[in-house]
Design a protein that fits this description.
Length: 285
DNA sequence: TACCAGGAGAGCG
DNA sequence: CGCTCTCATGGT
């Protein structure tokens, strides 16, 4: 086992890993276990930040510090948020919540599977998908077998009925067709980060099952476009309740408001609103 | 049981 | 345009 200490404060691991941006982290013994770049990882929060454990060999830690966005200046990000009551409340309630920088394919596939599903269910579908099609990953003996996220080629080689057997329902044909377009080089995901945001979004929108919301999730969570602002049912509810109480507002109006109101790190602000709203909904019920 | 879930896409007036 | 319906499945 190789250990690494990341000095980064504040960093709320639990909130970050369970706030609906990534779906494969599991809590065990006061730590979090997952797979990043095909490597098994265990993370634990500490006073100084994060303690990481991986299996040897390890050449460097860039792949992990990049994924965790260790070098992001969180205070600087938050300083760009609008100084209004909703954002103050969200920031106060979600101290240390951060955005990850994920693999574009895993992110895209995960969000194709996310539509009209609760986060618990999304996690289940993805777990089955990885068990059936992912390459085995070397993990400590005490762990049950773990798997990498399956490649687009591997999913493209599956049949629609096989995928439906993973409980993904009507999302199966979308995931299959998208996999085939990626595997065939029709859309090149690693290139998206080098494009202007509108061009990158247009590329994603060519994929079946990918509309504005899912495209924005991939742009934000995987391509580094920190002003991308995915509006899902939760964020729409939050924006409506907090900024347009009692008024009728369309989805497009909410997007335009968000683009104008939340600044260069709008996507970060969105994650705070999303998590804040969900935690509060949970407390109220 | 009924309703809803980090939507997309087609069909309609 | 803007609205409605369907798609599949399971949690609460």
């Amino acid at each position: 086992m190789r250990r690494k200490r990341f000095d980064v404060v504040p960093y709320d691991l639990a909130a970050t890993l369970t706030s609906g941006q990534a779906f494969r982290w599991r809590c065990r013994d006061d730590g979090w276990e997952g797979v990043v770049q095909g490597r098994w990882v265990r993370l634990q929060s500490a006073r100084y930040g994060i303690q990481a454990e991986v299996m040897p060999p390890v050449r460097n830690w860039m792949w992990l510090s990049d994924y965790l966005q260790i070098d992001e200046n969180l205070a600087g990000v938050i300083a760009t948020f609008p100084d209004d009551e909703p954002m103050r409340a969200a920031v106060a309630a979600c101290r240390g919540l951060r955005l990850l920088r994920q693999d574009p394919w895993e992110c895209l596939a995960s969000f194709i599977l996310s539509s009209t599903k609760q986060i618990v269910q999304i996690r289940q579908i993805i777990a089955v998908l990885c068990e059936r099609y992912g390459e085995p990953v070397i993990a400590p003996k005490y762990c049950e077998p773990s798997f990498a996220f399956p490649s687009p080629e591997r999913i493209a080689a599956a049949g629609e009925s096989e995928l439906r057997a993973c409980k993904m329902g009507f999302r199966a044909p979308n995931l299959l067709a998208a996999s085939r377009m990626i595997a065939g080089g029709e859309v090149v995901l690693p290139r998206l980060a080098t494009l202007p945001v509108d061009a990158a979004r247009a590329e994603l929108l060519r994929l079946p099952g990918v509309g504005r919301k899912i495209a924005d999730c991939v742009l934000l969570f995987a391509c580094g476009f920190q002003d991308a602002f995915p509006v899902d049912v939760w964020v729409a509810k939050a924006l409506h309740r907090l900024y347009f109480p009692g008024r009728r507002v369309t989805l497009e109006q909410l997007r335009r408001f968000a683009a104008a109101h939340f600044g260069p790190f709008a996507g970060y602000a969105q994650q705070y609103l999303f998590h804040y709203t969900r935690v509060h909904a949970k407390l109220k019920s």
